[in-house]
Specification:
Number of domains: 2
CATH architecture of the largest domain: 2-Layer Sandwich
Largest sheet: 5 strands, antiparallel
CATH class of the largest domain: Alpha Beta
Strand order of the largest sheet: 1-2-3-4-5
Order of helices and strands: HHHHEEEEEH
Radius of gyration: 27 Å
Number of strands: 5
Strand content: 15-25%
CATH topology of the largest domain: Alpha-D-Glucose-1,6-Bisphosphate, Chain A, domain 4
């Protein structure tokens, strides 16, 4: 019993020592003067990377407003065509998100709703994420895979059609 307590105490001391060795990060810079000099050098460069000074800086909106996301147009169009029986609630072509309401497929008796995320400009299965939901809850992975396959097949057909023009 005392060996367990000694081992636990050693573990706590070692964890405390590891945390104490982390410090504030200024040790890596050498001194406060070195940190100020590094900040001045960054201010002179064309594309400075701001130094993080607090946890709240992580949540600041410092993103470049001119950054654009690219979406594969064939996957986008194919998603709209394959899921045309679902009412579209919202679309964002800049981020590649399509959100639909509940709808029943032709010849089916179960209502579904879908969220489609086209996340890459490549015509690739990894670029497409589909989430399906029914009124009864989750939908099987096979159904989701079948919808993804239908969208990918239609996207390839659209690309082939455009290449023949």
């Amino acid at each position: 019993m005392t060996m367990k307590r000694i081992a636990r105490a050693c573990g706590i001391v070692m964890a405390g020592a590891a945390l104490a060795s982390c410090g504030s990060g200024n040790e890596l810079l050498g001194s406060r003067e070195a940190a100020l000099e590094q900040r001045a050098n960054l201010a002179r460069t064309a594309d400075p990377q701001p130094l993080r000074s607090s946890v709240f800086d992580l949540f600041a909106n410092n993103d470049d407003p001119n950054t654009t996301l690219e979406v594969n147009r064939y996957l986008w169009q194919a998603s709209l065509e394959v899921l045309d029986f679902l009412p579209v609630e919202s679309v964002d072509p800049f981020s590649g998100v399509i959100v639909t309401g509940y709808g029943t497929p032709p010849g089916g008796g179960r209502a579904y709703r879908a969220t489609v995320y086209v996340q890459d400009p490549a015509l690739d299965a990894r670029s497409l994420k589909v989430a399906l939901e029914s009124r009864g809850g989750a939908v099987s992975a096979d159904t989701v895979r079948a919808v993804e396959d239908a969208i990918l097949t239609r996207a390839r057909q659209l690309r082939i059609r455009d290449s023949k023009l």
